[in-house]
Amino acid sequence: MSELVARTGRHLQRYKDGCRLVAGCIPFKISKNSDGTLDNDVVELLMINSTSGRGLLFPKGGWENDETVEEAAKREALEEAGVRGNLVHFLGDYIFKSKTLQDEFCPDGLCKAAMFALLVTEELESWPEQNTRQRSWLTVPKAKECCQYPWMQESLEGFSKWHADQVLSNSKEENPLILPDSTPTPVQN
């Protein structure tokens, strides 16, 4: 397999109405019971450290001209957090102001992030930003404590509501819809 490399630069990134368009996700996995069935009450979320300050973030980055927003979200999860998975729900668009990234197309640093729930299927041992990023699997309450920005808190609230709705609707069905196996498979590159 060829070496994975993170994209850099802003010359291919999308901008609209003075905002830099960003794509990201909340990577998650569902624990299994001792009998191998999924325990929808035990969900873990993956957060990564910030390279420009303190705290933990969800993977996100610039949406580029040659990809869909879904492709951009999955690429960012791979580059920054070293995970692959399935986008299972669009959480919404969230506006925030970047403290460090202002440019001629976005002088005020405004960003519009399209955020998704990403069910993790693979956790890579090596990934493009592994030298600058550490991964942390957290429970939802712990992740809420780590969300230092309002837009992150809002996207996590959207995830929590969506997940609760999934659990509720699945518990009412005779043949509940179960998400695909969410145990990440360690993969060597």
Average pLDDT for all residues: 82
CATH superfamily label: Nucleoside Triphosphate Pyrophosphohydrolase
By CATH reckoning, the class would read Alpha Beta
> Can you tell me the CATH topology?
Nucleoside Triphosphate Pyrophosphohydrolase
- The total tally of domains equals 1
Most strands sheet:
9 strands, mixed
Strand content: 35-45%
CATH architecture: Alpha-Beta Complex
Order of helices and strands: EEEEEHEEEHHE
- Which overall shape is indicated by the principal axes computed on the Cα atoms? globular
Helicity range: 10-25%
Find the structural class using helix and strand composition. alpha+beta
**In terms of per-residue confidence, which ranges show pLDDT below 50 for 5 or more consecutive residues?**
174-189
Family: Belongs to the Nudix hydrolase family.
Keywords: Hydrolase, Magnesium, Metal-binding
GO cellular component, one term: nucleus
GO molecular function: metal ion binding; pyrophosphatase activity
Commentary on this structure:
The chain has a single domain, classed as Nucleoside Triphosphate Pyrophosphohydrolase (Alpha-Beta Complex), CATH 3.90.79.10. The protein has 3 helices and 9 strands, in the order βββββαβββααβ. Strands 1, 2, 3, 4, 5, 6, 7, 8 and 9 form a 9-stranded mixed β-sheet that branches. The radius of gyration is 17 Å and the shape is globular. It starts with 14 loop residues before the first strand and ends with a strand. The C terminus is likely disordered.
